[in-house]
Amino acid sequence: MEIIAIPSYRDGGLNELVHPKFGRCDSFTFITLDKNEITQVKVIENSAADESHGSGTLAAKIVSNNEAEKLIVSKLGPNASMALNSLKIKTFQAPEKKILVKDLLDLYLKGKIKMTPSEDLIIGKVLD
After folding, report:
1. Nearest-CA neighbor of 83 among 64, 110, 100?
2. For a Cys staple, 51 with which of 15, 40, 55, 81, CB 3.0–4.6 Å?
3. Could you count the other beta carbons within 10 Å of the beta carbon of residue 5?
4. What are the extents of the domains in the chain?
């Protein structure tokens, strides 16, 4: 079993768009997988989004507090990156385009999204 966090817009969920910015997303969609089958989808509001500074670090704690081991995201700031590394959360590079959470998850399940050292997220690319 694994739990994956994906930054999302508005109300989150599988049919919502992926938010490109980790610390400033509206919500996190947490997807629990068991043998690559979705067993649970949970949405948590990103209470860190409106912070004047430190939103990435606080958002990393939200991801960790919801027991996610993996995060699929397109952009991270340096403080968020360090926080995620310290919390042992593996980061995967999301494509920088409009995509639904369920479609991003599908790319992940098909092995089309690569794990990156979180400090490389700004230049990482999706595998063909």
Report:
1. 64
2. 55
3. 29
4. 2-120
What's the CA gap between 54 and 112, in Å, rounded? 31
Q: Indicate whether this model's pTM tops 0.85.
A: yes
From residue 40, how far is each of 5, 34, 97, 116 by CA, in Å?
12, 9, 25, 25
| Dist. CA 120–CA 59, nearest whole Å | 19
Least confident of 85-89, 97-101, 112-116: 112-116
Mapped onto helix, strand or coil, the DSSP state of residue 101 is: helix
The set of residues, in sequence order, having a beta carbon less than 8 Å from that of 37 and lying 6+ positions away, is none
What would the pLDDT profile of 43-88 be if each residue is shown by its tens digit? 999 999 998 888 999 999 999 999 999 999 998 888 898 999 999 9
Give the model's confidence band at 125: pLDDT under 50 very low, under 70 low, under 90 confident, else very high: very low
Structure tokens at 44: 């948590």
